[in-house]
Design a protein that fits this description.
220 residues; alpha/beta; DNA polymerase, domain 1; 2 domains; six-stranded parallel beta sheet; 9 helices; 6 strands; magnesium ion binding; phosphoprotein; Beta-PGM; Beta-phosphoglucomutase
Length: 220
């Protein structure tokens, strides 16, 4: 194992609650009510994909032009950025700070493969940007998770073969993407973890020593 590639939401920090609040308020403004159960479908996918699912759920898929959809997505993002603007290192999930330090000290490369375009902003707020050797820009990708493109792009930026990488996710689409990329997958506290190569109940269980013990290469 030469590199570890992280998702962001639910892995490094918990921003899902802020996404849900922003989406719920936007949906309500156009007459659609969503709950936490529906919100599970929005985890790990892009902003526009999330908006399309909400419009479909509310029976309003054909009620907005492409420009209007862009404006709705921008409104959601503005509200979301307002909610996350006060994040600090205290918002890192349990064990993540030490895990990142241990990876860095061991010379293992670290990448970010998040569908969130706010990834760099959040890393800065959490004061962990310096740990990352590669941050994939989701705006430059053609396909979202569960397609493996984002994890393949992270490996390429790190100049690593997929088999040399471990990917860490908490969402169904994300774990499917890691597996499809040919990487060792780690699933955190989710039913989706059943498809992961190694499963942990929380981020507190993530340590470099334990990851090395479980890691196996998936050379094709």
């Amino acid at each position: 194992m030469k590199a570890v590639i992280f998702d962001l939401d639910g892995v490094l920090t918990d921003t899902a609650k802020y996404h849900f609040e922003a989406w719920k308020n936007l949906a309500r403004s156009i007459g659609i009510e969503i709950d936490e159960t529906f919100n599970q479908h929005l985890l790990g996918i892009s902003r526009m994909e999330s908006l399309e699912l909400i419009l479909q759920f509310g029976g309003r898929s054909d009620d907005f032009s492409a420009l209007e959809k862009d404006e709705l997505a921008a409104r959601k993002n503005e509200a979301y950025r307002g909610l996350i603007s006060g994040m600090t290192p205290a918002d890192l999930l349990p064990g993540i700070g030490q895990f990142l330090r241990d990876l860095k000290e061991a010379g293992i490369k670290i990448g970010l493969a998040s569908a969130s375009r706010n990834g760099p902003f959040i890393l800065d707020s959490l004061q962990i940007t310096s740990f990352f050797d590669a941050i994939v820009d989701p705006a430059k990708l053609k396909k979202g998770k569960p397609d493996p493109e984002i994890f393949a792009a992270a490996a390429a930026q790190l100049k690593m073969r997929p088999a040399e990488c471990a990917g860490i996710e908490d969402a169904v689409a994300g774990i499917q993407a890691i597996n499809a990329a040919g990487m060792f997958s780690v699933g955190i506290a989710t039913p989706a973890a059943a498809a992961a190569d190694w499963r942990v109940a929380s981020t507190a269980e993530l340590t470099l020593e334990r990851l090395k013990q479980h890691f196996t290469r998936k050379d094709k």
